[in-house]
Specification:
This protein has 78 residues and is an alpha+beta fold. The chain is 32% helix and 19% strand. Strands 2-1-3 form a three-stranded mixed beta sheet, with helices on one face.
């Protein structure tokens, strides 16, 4: 997914949905997303993650619950 703007796609989508959290590249080449919001917001983001930006090839989306972090806004984490 590198080089197709996936992290920035996620950042824009999450901010438009009013979510808080972050997105970053994982060491294995995948993209990790932490998002906090209501069920409808998170479901909408999950659907968008399956599509990705125009040139992305999404092979899968794994979802799991995570401890709540004190985040404000949504950003790309390095």
């Amino acid at each position: 997914m590198q080089g197709v703007g996936f992290r920035y796609f996620v950042e824009q989508a999450a901010n438009a949905l009013g979510l808080s959290g972050w997105v970053r590249n994982a060491d294995d080449g995948s993209v990790e997303v932490y998002a906090a919001g209501n069920t409808a917001q998170l479901s909408e983001l999950a659907g968008l993650l399956w599509k990705g930006p125009r040139w992305a090839e999404v092979r899968g989306v794994d979802e799991s619950e995570a401890p709540l972090e004190d985040q404000r806004g949504f950003f790309v984490r390095q």
